[in-house]
Amino acid sequence: MQPGGRYVLALSGGCDSLCLLFLLQALRESEGIEFCALHVNHGLRAEAAADEAFCVSRCAALGIPLMVYREPVAREAERRGLGTEECGRLLRYERLSQAARLFRADGILTAHHRDDQAETLLFQLFRGSGLPGLKGMSPLSQTPQGVPLIRPLLGISRAELESCLKELGESWQEDISNQDISYSRNYIRQQLLPATEEHFPWARARIASAAAHLEEAHRYMEEQARLWLAEYRQGHVLPLPAFRNTPPALRFYIWRGFLEDSGLKDLGESHYQALKALPDAASGTRLQLPGKRCLWREQESIRLLGADLTQEGPDTPPAFTLRTFPWQEGLKIPDTPYTKWMDYDIIKDGLCLRHRQEGDYYYINPEQKKSLARFMVDEKIPLGLRDRIWVLAQGAHVLWIVGRRISYKARIGAGTKTVAEIQLFPEGEIE
């Protein structure tokens, strides 16, 4: 937090968020911090109305602006196909992010503390998480909506927060659902950690400290992956030779950065297990991903494409112009991907700009044909691109493989009298 900053506080009425409320009240006077509070009533517990009333009363007494949202979490969870706990969490962040924008806040403050951090690490450990999960909660992160999320109490224990409120003579709301050990986190909090502390009294502090070390390792791996992607990534393509030369531990972060940069987040363990196997899969293997995306294993690369590969390129042929002029010796023939000079008398009839078809061929010398299919194999054109490349053809005779080469018989030659200059304007360059 910065002097003079503006923040939105997530206020539940519990010990931790109430303690942060009083801390912010003190900073408001000493550091010029401005803040408002937000309470979300999920309507899932009998005590929800009392929690809301408590937050309203405390904020009114302190002169702190409070926003209250009442969310039908159970109904929304069913609509979204989520569990009520997960849906409630997402709705809270949606409302907090919305409030932060309305308040023009520099960030959102939550009251997660050291005990929460220890519980999170153990919970992720039992789920088999990697570094991104085992690092626990970051002191500074973002909501799913991209608003800065600050956790200033991560280094403070729950006992210290309770002691602080008791010294102030303040009470707080207790969530009785936290006693239900059928929930994994509650079991860790109520059963596992207390039993562990009988033998290891500083267990919570040590576990939280381990989370901080893992956070450092996680950030380092993220940075290494960013550097690798900056050097080797080619748009939506990962080159396999360079990828195979990376340490296995870094590959997960490369995948994560590559896909998150393309808008794919929160992939599950099953997806990452499939990603591990993709570099060794046969060329042409397709891995389906959320968001109507997929990955294609090509000969020497892996390409991210849309789910329907036949529609990855534009359906409408790109615009092109054709102009003619007399051929004169000494004219310099352009050598650019999308402008070609051809013999007009050879190509003037039956031109068609289209994608490849069975039986297509072009001439590699005056007498020898070569199939377009063979050309694409020899040139190692990725499978996912072959149906997207435009060709200018007369029947099955391909005069121009756009962006690549022209047929020998269409070239300017000794008998050329008239030049046909064809310039094509693609929506995006063909690799």
Describe the structure.
Helices cover 41% and strands 20% of the residues. The protein has 431 residues and is α+β, with helices and mostly antiparallel strands. It folds into three domains: 6-207, 3-Layer(aba) Sandwich (Rossmann fold), CATH 3.40.50.620; 233-307, Uridine Diphospho-n-acetylenolpyruvylglucosamine Reductase, domain 3, CATH 3.30.465.60; 319-425, Phenylalanyl-tRNA Synthetase, Chain B, domain 3. The chain is elongated, with a radius of gyration of 31 Å. 28% of the residues are buried. Residues 307-314 have low confidence and may be disordered.
Tell me the number of helical segments per DSSP (H or I, 4 or more residues long).
15
Class from helix and strand fractions: alpha+beta
Number of separate strands: 19
The level of helicity is 40-55%
Mean pLDDT, to the nearest integer, reads 87
CATH architecture of the largest domain: 3-Layer(aba) Sandwich
Shape: elongated
**CA-based gyration radius:** 31 Å
Assign the CATH superfamily of the largest domain: HUPs
The description of the largest β-sheet is:
6 strands, mixed
Q: Tell me the β content.
A: 15-25%
CATH class of the largest domain: Alpha Beta
The strand line-up of the biggest sheet is 3-2-1-4-6-5
